[in-house]
Amino acid sequence: MSKYLLSVVVDASVYDIPLEDAQPQFDATERFNDELKAEGSWVFAGGLGRLDEATTVDNTGADVVVTDGPFAETKEFLGGFWVVEAPDLDAALKIAARASKVCEQRIEIRTFDGA
Question: What are the residue boundaries of the YCII-related domain, all occurrences included (predicted)?
């Protein structure tokens, strides 16, 4: 089985949805997570905090530079993820389609190096 990263691609407006309005989506996502666990595909998953609360560390030069916010200026970014196991890309695509439905966002799939 290979491991796949299913990235949830969002824009900043997703964080402005009132919690009570987003609760049905959270509930659907939790049910989906339970399905993945029952199927044996679950490795781990998580939602991420607001982009404007990110910190970037750059130690590629002579000094460590720490800046508030994301490295790149972008309208869409990683809002959450699943790491799943699947026998092949076709199976991972089917899982991603289900993930996209429950979280109501686009999903990007990437394999892990050596997977």
Answer: 20-103
